[in-house]
Automatic annotation (TrEMBL):
Species the sequence originates in: Acidisoma silvae
Pfam short name (any one): TruB_C_2
Highest taxon listed in the record's lineage: Bacteria
The gene coding this protein: truB
Entries under NCBIfam families matching the protein: TruB
Limits of the Pseudouridine synthase II N-terminal domain: 33-181
Protein name (database record): tRNA pseudouridine synthase B
Domain tRNA pseudouridylate synthase B C-terminal as annotated: residue spans: 182-241
InterPro entries: PsdUridine_synth_cat_dom_sf, PsdUridine_synth_N, tRNA_psdUridine_synth_TruB, TruB_C
Catalytic residues as annotated in Swiss-Prot or TrEMBL: D48 (nucleophile)
Length: 308
């Protein structure tokens, strides 16, 4: 039986999209895949339709590095409106309650420390979490809003950065993966004795990707009616791994890894980077400037985990 030929070009690399408000992350992947005429594409972390900002799009071999991007630190900025709770915890939902309380800055600052570090967070009912095999947002849309259990969330930084008026407050957050800004907005308002929801949400950073790398959809669409977009706009696959400590290998060691063989850490003495944990850490295996793949250090060996 003949193998079916994949449609599109075999592109490898990252495009850091400045996502506009409105479309879903999947909408953007499909659109970029078409604009680049690419065989394979995915994204490095979902953004809500309301949200704007960094949406890393992975092409080809870059899709193998998506989990490492999603594990990286995220930075967000959001505007909280006090006085109304919404069923979606953002401005797109239906009002579920009202409050006349408008906390002052001192009350907000006093509430913030409880939301830093490792906290327990109840996700929004309109989220992609699965409950008994069903998506929570599907259940909520059908009037069967699920009861979601609290789950751990790592908040490295949570700051009040602006107070335009009594009704609104602007925050900046740095967090790990799987943290919901809509839940943070909802819960900080409750902790201040009020109700609230997000009206503006923007992602400023995803792992090694920052705003200065982002390209707007408008710019990408300018040449939509002509040939596919040039791959020259793509960042190298290895850009996603910049936060992972690099370990230099010889050509022969790289060949061994390529055959699935582990390398003794004794043979790598003096080359193991300071930031790598010999008991379970991940390193970026390099030959010169070429990334070979990602390896795990454990039990005295460096073992190939994901080869590029």
């Amino acid at each position: 039986m003949m193998k079916r030929r994949q449609r599109g070009r075999p592109l490898d690399g990252w495009l850091i999209l400045d996502k506009p408000e409105g479309p879903t992350s999947t909408d953007m992947v499909n659109k970029l895949k078409r604009l680049f005429d690419a065989q394979k594409a995915g994204h490095g972390g979902t953004l809500d339709p309301l949200a704007t900002g960094l949406l890393p799009i992975a092409f080809g071999a870059a899709t193998k590095t998506v989990p490492y991007v999603m594990d990286g630190t995220k930075r967000y900025q959001f505007t909280l409106r006090f006085g109304e709770s919404r069923d979606t915890d953002d401005a797109q939902g239906a009002v579920t309650g009202t409050s006349d309380v408008r906390p002052d800055n001192a009350a907000i600052e006093a509430a913030l420390p409880a939301f830093r570090g490792l906290i327990m967070q109840v996700p929004p009912i309109y989220s992609a979490i699965k409950v008994a095999g069903e998506r929570a947002y599907d259940m909520a849309r059908e009037g069967r809003a699920p009861v979601l259990e609290p789950r751990p969330a790592q908040i490295d930084r949570f700051e009040l950065i602006d107070r335009p008026d009594a009704d609104t407050a602007v925050f900046e957050v740095e967090s790990g993966k799987g943290v919901y800004m809509r839940s943070l907005a909802r819960d900080i308002a409750l902790a201040c004795g009020s109700l609230g929801h997000i009206t503006v949400l923007r992602r400023l950073r995803v792992g090694p990707f920052t705003e200065d790398m982002a390209i707007s959809l408008d710019k990408l669409e300018q040449g939509e009616d002509t040939a596919p977009i040039s791959p020259a706009l793509l960042l190298p696959v290895a850009t996603a791994l910049a936060d992972i400590p690099a370990l230099a290998l010889t050509e022969s060691e790289a060949v061994s890894l390529g055959h699935g063989q582990a390398i003794s850490l004794v043979d790598l003495m003096g080359r193991i980077p300071d930031g790598a944990d010999p008991a379970g850490g991940t390193v970026r295996a390099m030959v010169g400037s070429r990334v070979i793949g990602l390896c795990r250090l454990e039990e005295g060996w460096m073992k190939p985990e994901r080869l590029l």
